[in-house]
Amino acid sequence: MWSPSPLHPNSPHFPSVSSPTGPLFSTDLISPAVTASLPANYTMRPLQRSDYKAGMLDVLRVLTTVGHITEKAWNERYDWLARRGDEYYILVVCDGDRKVVGTGAVIIERK
């Protein structure tokens, strides 16, 4: 019997932009073994809209030129990513103060 994969739009793991404060994708897709390997007081989770204020762009600025991105522009891009729920899996690592200190991404490209 067919059942949707965690990456399929009919899956409960598939994100929805109807929850403006929720994560980009289900936390169930992050291995507990991976999060357990983080230093004390550090967490790993999916990107959230609120990460604009939690330092996500500051982390990216360490790697490249980011430019000025308004919160409105951030929210528009977040919604765009969320609508493509089976393509973009952006993770953030937060310190004990819930500040974003690292990020990584898995991008599923259709061929």
Structure description:
- The protein has 111 residues and is an alpha+beta fold.
- It contains three helices and three strands, in the order αβααββ.
- It has helices at 32-36, 56-63, 71-83, and strands at 43-46, 88-94, 100-107.
- It has a three-stranded antiparallel sheet.
- Residues 1-5, 7-11 and 13-18 have low confidence and may be disordered.
Which short descriptors sum up this protein?
111 residues, alpha+beta, three-stranded antiparallel β-sheet, 3 helices
Q: What's the overall geometry?
A: globular
Instruction: Report on the biggest sheet.
Output: 3 strands, antiparallel
Order of helices and strands: HEHHEE
Q: Give the structural class.
A: alpha+beta
Rg from C-alpha positions?
15 Å
Number of helices: 3
Can you give the helix content as a percent range?
A: 10-25%
Residue stretches low in confidence (pLDDT < 50, at least 5 long) are 1-5, 7-11, 13-18
The number of strands is 3
What's a concise summary of this model?
The chain is of the alpha+beta class and 111 residues long. The chain has helices spanning 32-36, 56-63, 71-83, and strands at 43-46, 88-94, 100-107.
Question: Topology of this protein?
Answer:
Blueprint: H1 32-36, E1 43-46, H2 56-63, H3 71-83, E2 88-94, E3 100-107
